[in-house]
Design goal:
Elements lengths: L2 E5 L2 E4 L4 E8 L7 E7 L6 E6 L6 E3 L7 E6 L4 E6 L8 E9 L11 E2 L3 E6 L1
Parallel strand pairs: 2-11
Antiparallel strand pairs: 1-3, 3-8, 4-5, 4-9, 5-6, 7-8, 9-10, 9-11
């Protein structure tokens, strides 16, 4: 069983940057792909980015491509999301996820989830 804890959320103005971090414990984090999802009020949980287990392969939602960068440090059991050029539409609760064997946009592929961290972008 893997436990995930996100940090780094907050409020920022449009055009600003934030870095989210996710710390994993309780399992073999490096054997799983990991990802970030987000959920805005009244909307479904959407895929943001994912990173493979060891090769560093990545996958991004079109809406964040070129602005967000996902990375991981398997030695520290962490995955991060660097978010640049933030827009008001990026406002959401961001969730870290792990446990998929492959890169996937499908949240059902990830059995382990963090509690979420709020990101608010003002115009």
């Amino acid at each position: 069983q893997v436990q995930l804890v996100e940090s780094g959320g907050g409020a920022v103005q449009a055009g600003g940057s934030l870095t989210l971090s996710c710390a994993a414990s309780g399992g073999t984090f490096s054997t799983y792909a990991a990802g970030w999802f987000r959920q805005a009020p009244g909307k479904e949980r959407d895929f943001v980015a994912a990173i493979s287990r060891t090769t560093g392969g990545t996958l991004y939602a079109e809406s964040v491509k070129g602005r967000f960068t996902i990375s991981r440090d398997n030695a520290k059991n962490t995955v991060s999301l660097q978010m640049n050029s933030l827009k008001p539409d990026d406002t959401a609760v961001y969730y870290c996820a792990a446990g998929s064997w492959t890169l996937s946009r499908n949240p059902d592929r990830y059995p382990y989830w963090g509690q979420g961290t709020q990101v608010t972008v003002s115009s």
